[in-house]
Amino acid sequence: MRIAQIGVGNWGAGWIHQIQRNTDWTLATVIDSNESRARQVAADVGLTAADAFPSLKAMIEAQIEVDAVLVAVPPVAHTEVTVEALEAGYHCLIEKPLADTLDDARTIVAAADKAQRSAMVSQNYRFKRAARTVRRLISEGVVGDVESVNIVFKKDPPFDGFRLEMDEPLLMDMSIHHLDLLRAVVPAFEPARVRATSWNPTWSRFDGNACATVEIESRSGARAIYTGSWASRSSHTTWDGSWDIEGTAGALTWADNEVIARPASVFDTVFLPGALEQHGSLRVDLDPSTQEERQGVLAEFAAAIHEGRRPETDAHDNLWSLALVEAAVRSASHGGSLVDVEQLVHSG
Ligand SMILES: NC(=O)c1ccc[n+]([C@@H]2O[C@H](COP(=O)([O-])OP(=O)(O)OC[C@H]3O[C@@H](n4cnc5c(N)ncnc54)[C@H](O)[C@@H]3O)[C@@H](O)[C@H]2O)c1
Description:
Elements: E1 2-6, H1 10-20, E2 26-31, H2 35-44, E3 52-53, H3 56-61, E4 68-71, H4 78-87, E5 91-95, H5 102-115, E6 119-122, H6 129-139, E7 146-154, H7 169-185, E8 191-199, E9 211-218, E10 223-229, E11 242-247, E12 250-255, E13 258-263, E14 275-278, E15 281-284, H8 293-307, H9 315-333, E16 339-340, H10 341-346
Parallel strand pairs: 1-2, 1-4, 2-3, 4-5, 5-6, 7-10
Antiparallel strand pairs: 7-11, 8-9, 8-16, 9-10, 11-12, 12-13, 13-15, 14-15
Helix pairs in contact: 4-5, 5-9, 7-9
């Protein structure tokens, strides 16, 4: 299938190479409101200037035919660009966060329903081997019923551009990955209530808050505590963060792409398929994958279209992940008050 990429900035530039080495998709055109950048990028990657456009409208007027678009513009422009593409009849793969607000995300979902086209969010962190491995182990009951999840994320990325001016850059642009991962790896964790605080260290490069703590209570009473920083002067975690997951049958630690299982019963440390006993725990081999990260996203997007089903990270489902972010932002701006996530999702 043929895809047009809208937005060829810092992250978008990498997307082009991902599409070009993917077997499901052919990059047909690049579109960027900065037309000279679109032309430059097109030339750099072996397309011609005639394959570069300043807008989707210009591409349609040039009668270029595509099946889908990839939306890789800053979050504030996701809704306008995506709704235009859906209304023009294209399937849409949208960078995270789906939209700036839950209301805007609902507008995208409604447009996808009306157009009967796929709207998938690129939650690429779900498509990494360690996340897949942790999800499998939990689904196989290695930790039993999950009651406690602790996630720590620490980086200090030298960003410029739109993130520096956001009110809550960490929560909106980064934590969406971790809160969506929580829903992916622990599917039984159904978020019910959220309380959060956010703050900005004096040395932060961001205008808005680069640090946050989010406490999430599930419908069953399980708890997840997330602590994140985009201004960390301490040792850094991987982009996935470091995870401790505890349940009725044991615990899992996932950090630095290493997954360790700690069964509650010493007899369960005798054997776990794909794991080696070390220091009283089980070090688990990561599940193999030939299509990791964005290759996994592109494969799932194509498969869902071919099979006429919703993709794993469909916009409908992603409303719940975005609701966790919006609940955290609301709570943080109201002194850490408790926010009901279900009410937020259904209030639209
Ligand atoms: N999934 C990930 O791991 C990951 C990592 C980084 C960024 N992102 C996401 O990717 C998206 C883009 O981020 P970026 O860092 O590349 O941003 P960027 O600011 O570097 O680039 C955005 C590009 O979009 C263009 N643009 C803006 N509005 C447009 C419009 N209405 N129509 C056409 N072009 C428009 C700009 O000219 C620019 O070239 C964001 O949603 C961001 O959160 C995701």
